[in-house]
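INFO worker-7 received task bundle
INFO bundle size: 2
INFO processing item 0
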Amino acid sequence: MKCSVISIDLAKNIFQICGLDENRNVLFNKKVKRSALLHELRQHEPTQVAMEACYSSNPWGRRIKMLGHKVSLLPAFAVKPFVIGNKNDRNDALAIAEAFFRPTIRKIEVKSLEAQDIQSLQRVRERMIKIRTGDANQLRGLLAEYGVVVPRTRVALMNEIPIILECNEMELTATARKIIRRLYQNLQNQDEQLDAIQQELDSLVKDKKEYKRLMTIPGVGPVLASAIMGSVTDANTFKNGRQFAAWTGITPSQHASGDKNRMGKITKRGNSTLRRLFIMGARAVMNWCTKKDTSLHRWARQLKSRMHGCKAVVALANKLARITWSVMAYKQDFDINKACA
């Protein structure tokens, strides 16, 4: 059976698949068991398969591509407006198929296993940093309740704990010392695990040409470069650098009607991790803009002189995102002489 597109509403055990012909008429819309999904797709000629981007869409996408089909993943927020009627699997599968034909919806590429590994390590690293920060804050708070005030930085806290445990003049009971020692050991273990994860992440990306090209961009360090490689499979899926910056959410929101056009705060759409890292990288570049005399740093100084510092940092992050897209799309190192020329 020849279909123009086959949409799949993914689930745990029972999937819903919907096929449309060239005139967008529904050929079938039926339920398929998980174990029979690939067998069902083998019965159709190679065509376009559309799914919502979710936790299981990448592995299924890789398996379906091996059958000869082309796979596109659609953002969930872009599919929701096309659901007509009650919320059920039939309507969801049909909505995915209809959203696929919308020219303004950007399709998401299926991640490779290598990109999946990089992103998985990034996510584990982020979660462990949050846990470590929580434990450090709890330890600092418990010490304050016993009248012991330590510096705010984590490094200073780790240096002070052995001294505090050995000091007998402080009002710390035996139980309190056990609690402090236990949290201190947890922090030490978390530091070791984070170092191991970072080393494993570096070993995956350090020899890649794309990683070396990204590292030539000011404000892009090892963490941001590996995060980009894990999140962006192909830069050419974005039309230009402006679209890539909009995907990361570093563009102002717009409210336009008639002859009125009002720009607001950044949209915060897309990948929140990349947005945060781009802003952190831009802040590092902005801090050094008075000490370097390149075209990019001169542009940053002019930007900082006419607007609030935080707003200038976000604008610079937008510029770095566009530069990043250019480096990835054209496969060339960053040239400081061309930036902001």
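INFO item 0 finished
INFO processing item 1
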Amino acid sequence: MIEKPYAEATARNSEAILGAIRVEFRDLESILEIGSGTGQHAVFFCQALDHLVWQTSDVPGNHGGIGAWLADASLPNVLEPLALNVLDAGLPQKRYDGVYAANTAHIMSPEAVEKMFTIVAEVLRDGGVFVLYGPFRQGGRFNTSSNADFHHSLRQRDPAMGIRHIEELDSFAQRGGMRRVRLYAMPANNNLAVWVKDGGVAT
């Protein structure tokens, strides 16, 4: 049996994110998570929000750990992970009310981030909601010196990584008919951005 992986940062941010998605996903049912990682978020959120049907996804190498969390929780509203790598993904046939991703954009290449937004726009129904959690730059600036240091450490690991400009993400969203409606300040210098698929213009 595969041991459950554990991410301390995921455990720390779960409660704060839950407070936001409790509002943003209150009228939704089907959710696709892009990059489920350990599976901790899926289990934590769906224990609290039993009206959601949560589709996990990640690269196949992470499926064992996600499956361990799902097996231990035994929740009827969390589904076994789809194989999904945004750069070469075939689009899921199903359409979703919402899409969720956490701590993905800054470890992806710019091309992968753009592709993620393309996938989200394709799988979201009209009126659907995309929630993305992580660190962002706004107005060309980092919100803290620690995030600037984090960005530079990412670039040293891989020049394609880095904290993204929220305005660039808005541009990707607009191409898919999505507009940003909210930007939450979150603990540990992160944000939670919310886009809605309705063809509007970002605010």
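INFO item 1 finished
INFO post-check item 1: Strands lie at 30-33, 53-58, 78-83, 96-102, 124-134, 136-137, 164-165, 178-186, 190-197.
INFO post-check item 1: Residues 14 and 116 are 22 Å apart (CA to CA).
INFO worker-7 idle
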